[in-house]
Design a protein that fits this description.
338 residues, alpha/beta, 11 strands, 49% helix
């Protein structure tokens, strides 16, 4: 398979991307890794590493900066590393695209170059979160659409269910609607209007869920609008960092606590692994007519390598075609019942 990596995406680009690309190419000699970026910045880092023959470099003149406005920049900068990389996917020269760059830029370029899967109203970003039971729960949308309509959330639920089957192996995923209460009447107008649509969708809808059910392992897919989902994501990351920082500080405060920390090290290592965002590396932009994965701007080489692996697994699992089929079946069902 052929995976494109945006070399100019992360906050410290292109160093993390170059090291991750070389590592991936050596790890998977049967695959092709395509690194896209500005030659003058990438080559001085890439060439001394003596990359294997299955790592290809493609020059891109421009960079989509974190400060760029997505809508206007897509047309003003047609040759960013994002745009060049996605055109490789569009033209059939690659199977998936990975970036740790501007999320809005990734969405805008994906819509402009790759378009949506037929029948999809809005694409959504789906992210995994750890649960108390040791599994994962998927939340969609975590940032692609700040404003949503009820029908968008229903499609998020469909795409999230497909991804749960493909990525997590859950045959009949439990779908919940994120709200401020479990009762059917709780929530804002969007939640209240979406609830009956999900109840009639044919999905395994279990009703409204709060964060405690989300992290408690009582649900497999949680649906929400991109504004709420992004706040949920960033709050979760902040709380996780706060807990680990405070624990570390307190456990190293005295010889006595250091001894306790040593004895409890396996448990703390397990907690750290659960909360480590580098395990996934990037999240898929579902609903785009191509495989696009977006990572965090703070990604290091390990996180970007994980992102490449996540994209690689999605290609192997035929995620894009399975999403197309699920959406097409949903459209046929809707038309048949109309």
């Amino acid at each position: 398979m052929r995976i494109v990596l945006d070399a100019m995406g992360s906050d410290r680009h292109p160093e993390p991307e170059v090291h991750a690309a070389v590592r991936a190419a050596r790890m998977w000699p049967e695959d092709t890794i395509i690194l896209v970026g500005q030659e003058a910045k990438v080559r001085p880092l890439l060439d001394p590493l003596q990359p294997p023959a299955n790592l290809h470099f493609v020059h891109a003149d421009e960079v989509f900066a974190m400060t760029d406005k997505p809508g206007e920049t897509v047309r003003r900068k047609p040759n960013t590393s994002m745009a060049v990389g996605m055109r490789l996917v569009k033209d059939g020269q690659a199977d998936a695209f990975v970036t740790a760059g501007n999320t809005g830029g990734a969405l805008a370029n994906a819509l402009f170059i790759l378009g949506r899967i037929r029948g999809v109203r809005r694409p959504g970003l789906i992210a995994p979160f750890p649960t108390r039971t040791g599994g994962q729960v998927l939340v969609i949308d975590v940032g692609a659409n700040a404003e949503c309509k009820p029908e968008y959330l229903v499609q998020f639920a469909i795409m999230g269910s497909v991804y749960a089957r493909v990525a997590l192996g859950i045959e009949n995923p439990r779908v919940g609607l994120l709200s401020n209460g479990e009762e059917a009447g709780k929530g804002n107008d969007l939640v209240k209007t979406t609830y009956p649509l999900l109840a009639e969708s044919g999905l395994n809808f279990i009703g409204n869920v709060e964060p405690k059910e989300t992290f408690g392992g009582h649900v497999d897919v949680v649906v929400t609008d991109g504004f709420t989902g992004n706040v949920f994501l960033k709050t979760s990351e902040a709380v996780a960092k706060l807990l680990t920082d405070v624990l570390k500080e307190q456990l190293l405060a005295s010889p006595r606590t250091k001894l306790g920390a040593l004895l409890a090290k396996p448990a703390f290592d397990h907690l750290k692994a659960m909360l480590d965002p580098r395990r996934q590396g990037a999240v898929p932009l579902l609903g785009i007519n191509g495989l696009v994965f977006v990572g965090h701007g703070r990604s290091d080489a390990d996180a970007i390598f994980s992102a490449l692996n996540t994209a690689r697994q999605a290609v192997a699992q035929n995620l894009l075609q399975r999403l197309r089929e699920a959406i097409a079946e949903r459209l046929r069902t809707s038309q048949g019942s109309a």
